[in-house]
Amino acid sequence: MRIPLNRTSQEPIYLQIRDRISRLIKSGSLQPGEQLPSIRALAESVQVNKLTVIEAYGVLEADGLVFARQGAGYFVNNFASASNFANHGIATPERSSTLDPAQEVVIAKKWGESFLDQYMTSLQAQQEPDMIDFTSGFPRPSGLEDLAKIARRAMTQVGDVLFSYDFPQGQFTLRKQVAQMLAWKLGLEVSADDLIITNGSKQALSLALQYHLRAGDWAIVESPTYHGAIALLENLGVRIIGIPMCKDGMNLELLEKYLHSHRPKLIYTISTLHNPTGITTSQAHRRELLSLAEKYHCHILEDNAYEGLNFAPSPAPIKALDRSDLVTYVGTFSKTLMPGLRVGYMLATGKHYQALVEQKLLHDLHVSTVAQAIASEYLASGHYRRHLNHLRTINHQRHDAMLQAMECNFPDSVRWTVPQGGLFIWVQLPDRTPMAAIRQAAAEQKVLIGCGKPFFPDGQGYPALRLNFSQSLENIDRGIALLGDLLKQFLLRSERIT
């Protein structure tokens, strides 16, 4: 295997080796099941230390591209399977979504439920002993020992920088690392100069919406969608159109109708592991959505906060198809590392970049230097890839456990999505389900559930629940069994009344 190395480059040698082998695998030059050169052979071939090859192979394994067989070496993973993570102990789910809502387009006329109330309810639940919290949008804590080590290393590197201000667009090293991550993970060919580091993805959304929209403008969202985005749009005085979500994503026929009739300035979409439904749209759906945006000169804000939590490979983001600077892409480490780190990023190309940097400067100067250093060290050390692999394995087990518990305990009239990753399962309930009563009864038995109403513009949508499956297996079994009993009781009572 020939691997040319640039020994004068700032990119570490092990990453150059990783990138070269990654390209050989993705191009088909290395076939599934094919054995990689031994560590010693490759080290001698490219004239590097064996530890460098071990580190490169370790990163490839964490990326899901290769797997180790004890005593035999490293082999190319099997991409013919439904998931390229199968060799890491993640089972391929056989279930399919039963979601089938009859839903109309929503033209929002009033403000929805308070975002602060929802946020505080979830935070307060974390303080309650023995509370089973299915409402939060957070992953469960893990890898705290690694975090402590990485934080100590990061602090030694920032040094005197702590005593001065930093660049509003973020530290160059971190932006370069994020650009490299987006390239190998998503196929996004961007540079550090296209990226802005933000205080989580929420700030990135806020900056983008304030830049592209003014009070009275029309904006299109999926219905349901992330309730934080609805709150931001309402706060700006923007008029919202909610296009129904189908099994394959936003209804594109209805989208074109309202692009033509209302000429909105922006489409907000969550293309991968949609919040709250968990749906990941196909490549064809993404191409058609971009084509419609180009036809009607409408900007797209693509929010991929849950990218990296996917159990199977996802299609390239809409931004990867964008040739007209119509798409602003937003991501974060809050859902994959820890919410409290508050490090997100925005990819904004062309004429929009400088104006967004200036807007970021007006907001808060820059993201915490310490937080950026910790995120940078996670990426540089290879811990992030290993952490993601571990997190996906745990999440997949809990995802399957919740689906199985729902199948055993929920009434036949209840439907739900089967996401290929993320944190949530979206549950569609029959019409006239007494949501407030069920929520109250569950809370009294220390099970907190998130009702679907806040995820619809104007709260106009079908009865639904968003359930976070990142709880422990014991809490999932206990909480879903209790919730199933409550649904049966209240739905039976509702049927008798009608």
Protein architecture, described:
This protein is an alpha/beta fold and 498 residues long. 44% of the residues lie in helices and 13% in strands. The chain has helices at residues 13-27, 39-46, 50-62, 115-127, 144-158, 172-186, 200-212, 227-235, 252-262, 283-295, 318-321, 352-364, 369-381, 383-409, 435-444, 473-497, and strands spanning 66-69, 73-76, 106-107, 132-133, 195-198, 218-223, 239-246, 249-250, 266-269, 299-303, 327-332, 344-347, 415-416, 424-428, 447-448, 450-451, 464-468. This is PLP-dependent aminotransferase family protein.
What is the CATH fold-level name of the largest domain? Aspartate Aminotransferase, domain 2
Distance between the termini: 72 Å
Nearest-integer average pLDDT: 85
Whole-number count of domains: 3
What is the CATH C-level name of the largest domain?
Alpha Beta
State the helix count: 16
Question: In the CATH hierarchy, what is the architecture of the largest domain at level 2?
Answer: 3-Layer(aba) Sandwich
